[in-house]
Amino acid sequence: MESGKNIKTHRVYDPTRHEKMTDRAWQADVAQDAVQLIVRDFESAISASGSWPTHPLDDEGSSPKWALYSGAAGAVVSLRILKRAGYMAKDWSSILRQIHSAYLLSPDYGYETGLHLGEIGILAPAYLADPSDHSIFERLVKCMKETAHHQAREITSGGAGMMHAALVLHEKTGEQIWIDLYREAAYALWESWVENRETGEWLWTSKIFKGVRSYYGACHGIAGNVQALLKGIEFLPSEWAGTIVRRAIQTLRHSSVRQGADINWPLSAETDAAGVKRLVQWCHGAPGIVNALANLEAFEHEESSEFESLLMDAGEFVWKAGPLAKGPGICHGTAGNGYAFLALYRRTGHALWLERARKFAVHAIQQSNDARKKYGRGRYTLWTGDGGLAVYLLHCLRPEIFALPGLDEF
């Protein structure tokens, strides 16, 4: 086995985390029906308090969840996206202020200002729905300023997630304040990006999950941070682009782990048991890295052919590994892995990648249906459940509007 890192391991991934692919074929009308079923289920399950029932897999028995990741704000954003695309979905944006108040009284996982687990993920869509609400504007700006320098240098809680929101807010409103905030977080990321002199890797250390690690993936690591920097590179110093790409390629080349044609990445640079864990998910591993970095084609770099090969090999590996047993969601589910194929389709134009994305969609529909039978209800979340699946199905039907929900659109 070839390995970029000197890590003692005998596998690139754990096959028991994956399922055999369904033999059902893609049918557009079946996907359309699945989206509409999810919409009806969401709209029938909302409570008078503006929340949705917490699924057993999202910590059943706890108080309602409110944030973008696995709470009511994510459910609202799911339905907003589907309504904009023409589905018969109600726009529940008017309850986002109520959701925000409830979050402050009872935060999902402890209070945060950030995008997926904190206030920004509730306030950003609320402001987009009503840009005249000055109190929301002031609170959102305050939270974004605090998040810009957060020790979690990543998507869910830190500056990289805030940067995505800032770019969407600027695109939709044209207001300069959002670019100013984007730059503030970008400079904080730039200044905290450090080279490991022994390995040549360029890494961030993030304080999350009650520990400090240097992650590689799209959710918490270099791939996600690089994506956030390159997404708004027009607003940053022109000389940064080449440096960002060079550092990313250098780091991912060294940290990759190969077995034959298969390629994946460990969770982090640390070499304890958690660090070398091999996950194949959007949050950790090849799928998220492909999704985050497929936009590097816009920049010239010396290792372009090598990086092209790395991306294609990673895509092939995600296909070989198969759908995730954890379910149909985005963060650590089949839809999230399928988004890697949509990213490669957008990059290359090759129909094979769209076919594979749609095949994962068929499997994810079956996973959602099976889970609904098992638990007697849906999973009313954006990043872990049926809301994200419905948006993924939309993007498989209309790949030209592909945008990751909760990052690229709200």
Overall description:
By secondary structure, the chain is mainly α. 49% of the residues lie in helices and 4% in strands. It has 14 helices and 6 strands. It has helices at 28-45, 72-84, 96-105, 120-129, 134-148, 159-173, 176-191, 222-231, 240-255, 286-293, 304-321, 334-348, 351-375, 386-397, and strands spanning 194-195, 202-203, 206-208, 211-213, 257-259, 262-264. The protein has a two-stranded antiparallel sheet. It has a two-stranded antiparallel ribbon with strand order 3-4. A two-stranded antiparallel sheet has the order 5-6. A hairpin with a 6-residue loop joins strand 1 (194-195) and strand 2. Helix 1 packs antiparallel against helix 14 (386-397) and helix 4 (120-129) runs parallel beside helix 6 (159-173). The longest helix has 25 residues, at 351-375. The chain is globular, with a radius of gyration of 20 Å. The protein starts with 27 loop residues before the first helix and ends in a 13-residue tail after the last helix. The model has no long low-confidence stretch (mean pLDDT 93).
